[in-house]
Design brief:
mainly alpha, 13 helices, single chain, antiporter activity
Length: about 325
């Protein structure tokens, strides 16, 4: 059970960020491996749907542990889930956006190298920064804005001449991959800040909020699954192409999603940047060892700029873990 937000220790924050980093790096490499080695390619949409189901089941179990008794557990579900259609509707917004993001992420990674995907995905930082300013009434310092533009420059270098794998040859469509990652980035920025605002605007349990979001998420992803792959699924089956590696990827995605909600609840979206920077390094090293990735100079410089910008962005001059209620338009855009 996660501690109360007021009593969160530095160790707990570091623990969550460390686990989130390792899971993100492992997920990127493992997903890339399944997409390049599978003899029969599975449906990525079904994997996203199953991920939502697993996250829901884990959240239900954690809520039961948090409440401590069957009676309080039933009362909590009845009050906050079954008896709160308004709250379910509120949490359906990020679940819908996250569903789109997850599907776009699967599509992007199928058409991009693992390291390119991981670095390019960091465009969610400037998108998140803008959403934070507009939605949470926070201010960003000039140094933070500089780091945002530095990040854009780094990602541009990565896209200009991306690294190429030499040992694994896979038919890819980079244009489709970058288009999918752009949509995923926009979804990530909005949904992350929206969910943070919902979590920190009330004392409702984190696991209750997760259950509310994942319930609608299952409906959304299941509908999306049959809209995009319905005919093939009926012909080949829902679990077509599934292997132990695919289930491992789904498990990593589920754990990563849960830890992301914990990090957002007890720190903020800015702290997620540190995790992303470390994941870039780890996934790149893994790609070199496993896929024979050749790092070009432009890719290396771009990755370096991304890591430095994420570090600078994570050095705010103010407390960014709580929502400010008052801020002028000028302060929100420029900051001090």
């Amino acid at each position: 059970m996660a501690p109360a937000r007021e009593n969160v220790s530095l160790f707990f924050k570091l623990y969550c960020l460390t686990v989130m980093t390792l899971v993100a790096a492992a997920y990127t490499v493992a997903l890339r491996y399944t997409r390049t080695t599978a003899e029969e390619l599975y449906f990525s949409t079904t994997a996203v749907c199953i991920t939502e189901v697993i996250k829901l089941l884990i959240s239900v179990g954690l809520l039961a542990k948090e409440t401590g008794s069957l009676g309080r557990f039933k009362a909590s579900l009845s009050e906050n889930v079954l008896g709160s259609p308004k709250e379910l509707a509120k949490l359906s917004v990020p679940s819908l956006v996250y569903a789109v993001q997850n599907n776009m992420a699967f599509l992007a990674l199928s058409n991009l190298d693992a390291a390119v995907y991981q670095v390019t995905y960091q465009l969610k930082i400037p998108c998140t920064a803008l959403c934070t300013v507009l939605m949470l009434n926070r201010t960003l310092s000039k140094l933070q804005w500089i780091s945002v533009f530095m990040l854009c420059g780094g990602v541009t270098l990565v896209q200009w001449k991306p690294a190429q794998a030499t040992k694994v040859v896979v038919a890819q469509n980079p244009l489709l991959g970058f288009g999918a990652i752009a949509i995923a980035v926009l979804c990530s920025g909005f949904a992350g800040v929206y969910f943070e605002k919902v979590l920190k605007s009330s004392d409702t349990s984190l696991w209750v909020r997760n259950i509310q979001m994942y319930l609608s998420g299952i409906v959304v992803t299941l509908a999306g699954t049959y809209l995009s792959d319905g005919a093939e699924i009926q012909e080949k089956g829902f679990f077509y192409g599934y292997t132990y590696y695919v289930w491992f990827v789904i498990f990593l995605a589920s754990v990563g999603g849960l830890y992301t909600s914990v990090v957002v609840k007890y720190t903020d979206n800015i702290m997620k940047g540190f995790s992303a920077a470390a994941a870039i390094v780890l996934s790149t090293i893994a790609s070199v060892l496993l896929f024979g990735l050749q790092i070009t100079l432009s890719f290396a410089l771009g990755a370096l700029l991304v890591c430095v910008s994420i570090y600078l962005y994570g050095l705010p001059r103010q407390d960014t873990t709580s929502i400010q209620q008052e801020a002028t338009s000028k302060e929100r855009i420029i900051g001090v």
